[in-house]
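BUG: 3D viewer hangs when loading the predicted structure for this chain

Environment: internal workstation, default settings.
Expected: structure renders.
Actual: progress bar stalls at 90%.

Input used:
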Amino acid sequence: MSLSDRFSPRSSPAPAEHGSPGWVVIVPVKSSDVGKSRLSDAAPDRAALARALALDTIAAAAAATAVERVIVVTEDSDIAAAVRRMRTVDVVREGDTRGLDAAIATGAAAAGSDVPRAALLGDLPALRPFDLDTALEAAEAVERGVVADAEGEGSTLVTARAGATWLSAFGEDSFSRHKLLGCTPLDVPVDSTLRRDVDTAEQLAAASALGLGERTAAVLASSAA
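Structure tokens produced before the viewer hung:
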């Protein structure tokens, strides 16, 4: 699959009506030197692979029609430098916060409560903007929404309508815990690229079958050379 195919969706949902705010998507990214430790066997340079996974995810989110702004929460200087060149992407320092939910909360606070917000995991290298648009369109009908990962146990996306208090519970069995928080499961197809997060070599292979973003593909190609 070519880059143009990934970023030229078949028929994206219509953008937000004039005067209504678009979605703010928050992407938490660990420092590349510690992130994705289970991918050490997938590429000689694990840090470069972790960075590529995040940047492909962020680029896809920024290209989605429904997304007005992307907030990247990170302490990784290389990630911060790269995304500052992307239109509509801002960087917020993680600071002294610890843990995924705390980092996301920092981004949600920066977004403000008067806009619809979504937390997107930063390890979706096959993500197509169309698939994110489809999920966000469904999320407009609920106060809080959640998208399960491909295994059905974790979560890849959590949403909150404008005015709703931000809540998230990422981690082990997060899909069940998000439902307990009042999140409505969003009707996203099982083969959606939004559901294919990557923590292991097997999951990376599954994402590859969907079509990887250019940065992740380049790192893997370099590893194979």
